[in-house]
Structures
1.
Amino acid sequence: MIFGYCSRCVAWLYAAEFKSGSIPWTSQNGIRIADQQHRHECSMCMIVSVPKETVPGEQRVALVPELVPKLTQASLDVLVQPGAGESAGFFDAEYEEKGAQLEQEVLNQGDILLKVQPPTIDEIGRMHEDSFLISFLQPYTNVAAIKSLAARRITAFSMELMPRITRAQPMDALSAMSTIAGYKAVLIAASRLPKFFPLLMTAAGTITPARVFVIGAGVAGLQAIGTAKRLGAIVEAYDTRPAVKEQVESLGARFAELGLATKDAEDKNGYAKAQSQEFYRKQQEIMGKYVAAADVVIPTALVPGQRAPILITEEMVQGMRPGSVIVDLAAEQGGNCALTEPGRDVVKHGVTIIGPMNLPSTVPFQGSEMYARTVTSYLVHLLQDGRPHVDLDDELTRGPLVTHRGEIVHEVVKAKL
Ligand code: NAD
């Protein structure tokens, strides 16, 4: 006997399919329907859960209130842990107003878990089997978590592995976060440099502008160039991918011509390919004069899945003027400067070398907004009839998929473990 239907996912339900049949049901024309204002009891609607991040220093949250309706309109229920958005400036009442429910323990209730930082082993243990996870996962290095996700039969998507194709642009979390990192790196450098950035004509004399050298002009590097230009610095930049020259120049910076042969610099996804040790040695040698002339160096050079290449040697740091600043945006991948200590600020040979970790978390409001947009766009892309559909023929589904049906399914991740 049909008992009623769910007004959200429009599934007709038998009495046995109600989770408890309690309060959230209202009656309309004699048919019982789920109340949109409450997390209802329909066993067909999936629950998206959003926990408070637990990694020390992480201030972002994976979902912001404004995006809750996007999920409820897609027949999903949204559960948010109280205080989850507080450090980013999003408060519990705003989530409730937009249709989410607050629950203290969300990990074991969610069918789909949205996170910023990879879940800990303990968090994975609290998720239920066969649930879905969308998060940054650090899939190439986070061996224990990836194995644990597979062991618990969780279908996990890693936001780092989103294909860099036009269709996936609204889901490109890495680019969104790199934008923040590039911007913030310049602000940090400007506040630590014992000099002004802009040219100033004052009664007390003319101040010459600071010189900034950006190594690696991907998303973070280009944002750093733009921000440093806006602050009035003279900016030079270099990248192994020749295609970047035009982008650097369009921002008003000068492209450093190192005269290195970089024909095979880019893979099919637009990422830099690793170069030979001989190449890096030559690059260091030729780049020495640019580094020495700079007041601020912002290296951002990464090669996916590998330790960041060392591009600034100790000798090059010695060649810099005391008081100069290096903000090493590759610190999380080991650093582009040989003297970088990830997570620390050190002064070596009179040069301040900053190895920031997790810069996107230092702009948590927009960091959360931007990240949440990418994650919800991805989740909506996966949905079919109110639940994620793992279509292995779809490049966007397959690309970030790391674990599925108890297996590690991403070939590159599997090979790295
Ligand atoms: P990234 O963070 O992996 O690397 C940063 C930069 O370092 C890259 O530009 C890389 O070429 C450069 N680099 C690597 N080794 C270097 C070396 N030895 N010396 C100097 N520079 C070096 O890069 P990213 O910011 O993620 O961007 C990678 C590519 O993806 C770019 O082509 C970007 O335009 C493209 N992209 C495409 C889309 C899209 O189409 N949806 C979105 C974002 C980025």
Note: The radius of gyration is 25 Å.
2.
Amino acid sequence: MSALPSTSGKTSAAGSETYDAVVVGAGFAGMYMLHRLRGLDLSVRVYEQGDGVGGTWYWNRYPGARCDVESMQYSYSFSEELQQEWDWSERYAPQPEILKYANHVADRFDLRRDIEFSSRVEQAVFDGSAGCWSVTLAGGKTVTASFVILATGCLSNARVPDIKGLADFKGEVYHTGHWPHHSIDFTGKRVAVIGTGSSAIQSVPVIAEQANHLTVFQRTANFSIPARNAALTAEERESFRSRYPEIRRFAREQTRNGIYQELPDRGALDDGDNERRAKYEERWARGGLTFMGVYNDLALDAAANDTAAGFVRQKIAEIVRDPETAKLLQPNNHPIGTKRICVDTDYFATFNRPNVKLVDIKSSGIEQILPHAVRAAGKDYEVDALVLATGFDAMTGSVAKIDIVGRDGATLNRKWAEGPRTYLGLMSAGFPNLFVITGPGSPSVLSNMIVSIEQHVDWIADCISFMRDHGLSIMEAERDAEDKWVAHVNEIAHATLYPQANSWYMGANIPGKPRIFMPYIGGVGAYRRICNDVVARGYEGFTMTAAERPRKIATL
Ligand code: NA7
């Protein structure tokens, strides 16, 4: 437990609350950021729009919701006691257990006293002369802070598609990313799921077991690998715990995606057909995201990628009995892995159930929602409930909802209108003392998020500590450094197959959003070294100054 003194902010002469830092969001990023900044004795206020901690795991309560990274690795590493004491029950923890873990962390480190729940940040305005931010909450309250840290999450702005007639539907409507907190019972009902991304792939098998009838509307077929979820044994947990220092270090420093695994040393075409097939079979039997780690060129070489894609398509054909449905479920318009690969439990087999139907809407989409039906592919499908598994305005959506005004009245939304521009995914030029955790231009969603969150939080906390120690109060990304970083992020993305898919990585799921590959694809190990080198070279590419009217951190 933390033995730190209360870090409540002080009230200024003008009557507004003043903090060293405001953190937006109390998910895994916001909670750890609070913990680290408190450790520096800074006054911190966290604003969270939900009424509890957990972020993604607070909102995504749909049936079957689980993390696609294994529990023993999808967990904080900053506290040795925490990682030794917390018992994960399954290989992939279900959402309620991850939420319980988030709540445990909040209690264990006494975080709640500095978090204001049900508080949405609407605006943040930088005051150049005072060298601080004014942060305004829904409801009108304004506080000031030296630093603003956006821990707003990458998949937190649920997208309800603009489908004709949706508002006229008379039955129940749910979005997977905004699921109600009470339990939903589909027993005896006719349910429609729109979308076949990860959220649908996890929820479809569970909903199918409950519903009288389930219709799944598919615009794009997706690749999915069996999770092979199972209860974790005490021995398995112990095997991780005893090797945690090595596992965490390897995941952070040596891997691309922040997941401890053996690293491939050859390409798919370096093996003959039989050998390659045996390797894919072994990974398929093992299950999970590491399927893509079998060879080192699956994201780079179309012919290599085809071998893995073909293998998965064949598996789908073997599982799904109706040949027409099997064909529709076989992805054929993007290389495997270029849309986030899914991890499932019995997704494809669910289409063998007599109460489940797949409807292909590739060519004309959902035509209309009627009061009691979905009209698509020239037919009306009568339903009692609609599940929108239609995804998120990813990476930038939650940032864009805040009106962020930097130097000289420039807004972040205007600056990012043609695509997000950051230096290292951490800061954007013209917006001093504003940090983004796992922002666009960092590995972020291409990685085990907790690894990337911890790296960013530590970097930001160390940076603020450095500034305090050196009497500096304003930090800003240099435009030139930012331009070079944006060019680098683009260049390496376009050396891969990723931009070939209409993915949310590319902003392609949101009409009108610029098509830019948003995350940094260089890998968490390489990225960490770049960030560390920037620090070693005196925060190269950032300008750090004392303010015109210096404000000393922690003694405001
Ligand atoms: P995703 O992966 O963005 O999936 C959304 C799905 O919804 C996808 O199949 C979309 O088809 C479909 N979609 C979106 N809009 C429509 C409309 N208007 N009509 C029909 N179908 C539509 O979101 P998820 O929540 O499943 O997963 C997000 C991430 O969370 C996931 O990658 C994991 O990292 C965890 P499309 O592919 O765009 O044709």
Note: The longest helix spans residues 449-469.
3.
Amino acid sequence: MIAKPTIPAPLDRPGSQIGKPVSRVDGRLKVTGGAKYAAEFNTPGLAHGYIVSSAIARGRILAIDTAKALALPGVFQVFTHENRPSLPWFDRKWKDDDAPKGSPFRPLYDATIHHALQPIALVVAESFELARYAARLIHVTYEADDHRTDLRAAKADAFTPGKDKGGFQPPPKPRGDADTALAEAEVSVDLNFSQAVEHHNPMEMHASTVIYHNDGSLTVHDKTQGPINSQTYVCNVFNLATDAVRVISPFVGGAFGSGLRPQHQLFMAVLAATTLKRSVRVELTRPQMFSFGHRPETLQRVALGAKKDGTLTAVIHEAVQETSQTENYVEVVVNWSGQQYKCDNVRLDYKLARLDTHTPLDQRAPGAAIGVPALEIAMDELAAKLGMDPLELRLKNYTEVDPNTDKPFSSKELRACFQQGAERFGWHKRSHAPRSMREGRQLVGWGMATGVWDAMQGQAVASARLGIDGTLTVGSATADIGPGTYTAMTQIAADILGLPIEKVSFQLGDTNLPMAPLQGGSWTVSSVGSAVKAVCDRLRDRLAGLAAGLNDGPLKGLKADELTFADGFLIAKSDPSWRLSITEVMRANDLLVLEDEARSIPYYKSQMKHALGTHSAIFAEVRVDEDLGTVQVTRVVSAVAAGRIINPKTARSQILGAVVWGIGMALEEESMIDQRLGRFMNHDFGEYHIPVNADVHDIDVIFVEEHDDIVNPLGAKGVGEIGIVGVPAAIANAIYHATGKRLCDLPITLDKILGA
Ligand code: MOS
């Protein structure tokens, strides 16, 4: 099954589909309502579940009276910890592909309340409205314990987490003596940072529609970033055979990490369907979207020391991040600070503090979106103290190797990002002094920052089926949460076999398809795309062999590398008039279909010798109203180095969306806890502010040329997360330039600007 194509298809030839701004192949379905989401699949007799959420943050349920709800005609059942069926005891049965170390949350397991809005009951009725009404008739008596949801109060008990889940690397050991170097530095800065909890807030709320079949098997329509992850979870928790559970998830209305772990509505819907032996849907309400994982609140300190010429002599970065009482959710927050710049004295420290909240959850560029802005704001402050241009300071300390590991980067075109981004923005026209670019009562400020994210790859398998009519269907059980996976995979397949885009379709979001990892970490193009390339390279080899074997054919004896694949033809490079269509080759060989499957495995050996990452330079302009403290981000230029860009149109959309989120993170987004209740107060779009059209102005995206043969066979690093990473810092730095105020607590709301 391991693909070893003799002649991989070259990707940079003229006419290549790769690199073309192809419009989304699923765009029409999406804008016409033809794309179906988890809560839109229907079946006769479908029952509807409504989740009852805990009113307290910590304690236990003493009594739960469901009699009134059950008495309503049309209510089928109310599930609680008291009447739930038997469930597994071992933690490992509840683990999923994104579970951190610890004990995963188990819905309806017992009377214990771990966090506010914890799901404590499920009402199942003939309609959603009836289930919701019945839920209000349920009376719960609690015994509340004191809760702790304040990270500042919990900070004193912070601890260093051990190594655990795949992606997490603890900070590297200190190098040199950063504290002494800081004390002796000619110029130094020492800043404290905080950033609020953010929720993912995808447009589509989490939902699962479980179709119950007479033989007890299930078809599960789930909102997920990994159908196989949901399938494994359901099979483990409910003790079902893999072939009795098929998870289908063709479209996801945004997720940003919220679908990396199976959410409790999936558990609830399967519980009800298997117990009641009928089809059930459970969909969360918008307020309930604040009842599970979130980007964790983090408290940070960054201290930098430098010589007068800007040479960094000390980097200290410390972070304390929240986790739950039951799991050690960890992110790589501080490690980037040892990687970004050349410096001999570096000390990085990362700790967790336990709160009575749900376990946090990966959210777009987890860790980097928090830690890198802290470093980049500190660099801006250092530049200000040195009287140096912030871009010059970064170039002064630029590094071609990863100082954490001394490994060279497989590629790092960050210099090109700086140059092209600065030129597009007009950075050289910036006046150095804060408050020097005023226009009337508007203070204009220009700021910049660097972004970084890992380039990762996992194993994946893809299948392909080529018909005699020249249509190709490729599939892999990945997801498309919005980045354009359908389109990019279609392009890769069409390119390698020389087929028009319209002749190729890509299938995903179905556990009947070959294995793919979770869609996350910006690794789908590298992982699944490499598998698609591998299987199409195999088909190409086989077609070439079939054509060469036709003794009376024009391509007799030619090798695969002596052929071009274009417009459905195999064409001799030596004389393009010697050609056969795919149909002719297959007909002559009595074949109606040609099928194959291939697994792509990362180039571990060469990857291990290198640091792999995407990089970016962000330039931002703000206008701050001096009287009102309001901020408009009037211009952003994001220059990105992410290897080969498969589709510049969808990739640009990724960066645009991420910049918008960066504006939100810098200025607006904040899930606020009422510490007395231990509960998020602003749990809807009325009070949780995200950027709207009026907040979004000019955003310019540049992809710089970057060639990389090590990162994966496509040379494509992925762009799902890099777009957000430096944005909050560039905006905070622009606000400093506009106002002279150094603000380090995100979001920077107008009260902070006026109050500072
Ligand atoms: Mo992303 S946070 O890896 O879905």
Note: Residues 225, 256-257, 260, 362-364, 366, 520-521 surround dioxothiomolybdenum(VI) ion (CB under 6 Å).
